[in-house]
Each structure stands twice: as C-alpha cells, then as structure tokens.
Amino acid sequence: MEMKTVEMDSRDATIALGQKIGQQLAAGDVLVLDGDLGAGKTTFTKGLAKGLEIPDIIKSPTFTIIHEYHDGRLPLYHMDAYRLENGGAEDLGLEEYFDSDGVSVVEWAEFVADELPADFLAIHFRRTDDESKRVLEFEPHGDHFDQLVSTVVG
C-alpha cells in the first residue's frame, strides 16, 4: 500500500487522530514514530493512550528508554531508542514487548531496526513553517496496518 499523508492543524487534532488509531489497535501491534524533536510524536502517543483507555499521563521516555502503562484496554509500551544509537537494543528483549499482550510505540526506531517485527506501522512526523501544523506520513507494513490506515486515515 502506498503512504498516506495527513496534515494536522493543531495539537488537539494530533491527539484526536492518535485516539482514533488507539481505538483500533490490537495486542502485539507495533508503531514506529520518527521525526524531529517537537514534531508531535509524544503528543500523538498521548492520543493513542486515550484510545487505549489509559488514564495515566504520558511522558516522553527519553531517559528511561521504556515507559509501561498497564491500566488501559491493552498495555502500552512507549519506547525511545535514541540512547541505543551505539547499540544495546538486543539486550533489552524488545521482541518480548513486540510479541506481548500490549501495543508498542517506538520512537527513534532506526536504532533498533533489526529487532522490529515484519508487520508494523511507521508514522513520519514533519514540522512545517507554520508552528501549529504538522504533516504525518503513514507507512503501513502488512495487511493489518494497510486496513487500519485505510479505515482511520482514509
């Protein structure tokens, strides 16, 4: 399937889209988010958590690598692989998260590319000249994510 591009015109719109996607996710789903700092990855994940009915406040996992949230419809494993730039991903047991009963969201996934499953949804976040707008590009890998993107994004 080809990529789908969506322009978000506010933080609230980004959260709302994340929530719609979160409502469609199933155990074992993996989402890969990339983009510059401040491009909207954590904002999107806040919406995703809402869609998973997670009441916790979602924070960027930059310093802890993995934040786990267990109080929703499905657990959410929010990962930031940036600090794995020089290796170490294979020691974290990421495949256990990817094969689990929860949803994994991975930021800076290029540093753990060898650990990713065959099927996942990549979302590329781009800032624009207008500070309130973001461009999100959806790149599904696998039939499940083709269907999800078609359903939610159009």
Number of folding domains?
1
Helix coverage percent? 25-40%
* CATH topology-level name: Rossmann fold
**Highest CATH level, the class:** Alpha Beta
Give me the strand/helix succession: EHEHEEHEEEH
* Strand fraction: 25-35%
Overall 3D form: globular
Give the mean pLDDT.
89
Q: How many beta-strand runs?
A: 7
**The CATH homology group name:** P-loop containing nucleotide triphosphate hydrolases
Task: Give the helix/strand class.
Answer: alpha/beta
List the helices and strands and how they pair.
Elements: E1 4-8, H1 11-24, E2 30-35, H2 41-51, E3 66-69, E4 76-80, H3 94-98, E5 103-107, E6 120-127, E7 134-141, H4 143-152
Parallel strand pairs: 2-5, 2-6, 4-5
Antiparallel strand pairs: 1-7, 3-4, 6-7
What does this structure look like?
With 154 residues, the protein is α/β, with parallel strands linked by helices. It has helices at 11-24, 41-51, 94-98, 143-152, and strands at residues 4-8, 30-35, 66-69, 76-80, 103-107, 120-127, 134-141. The protein has one domain: P-loop containing nucleotide triphosphate hydrolases (Rossmann fold). Helices cover 26% and strands 27% of the residues. It has a seven-stranded mixed beta sheet with strand order 1-7-6-2-5-4-3. A hairpin with a 6-residue loop joins strand 6 (120-127) and strand 7. Helix 1 crosses helix 2. The mean pLDDT is 89.
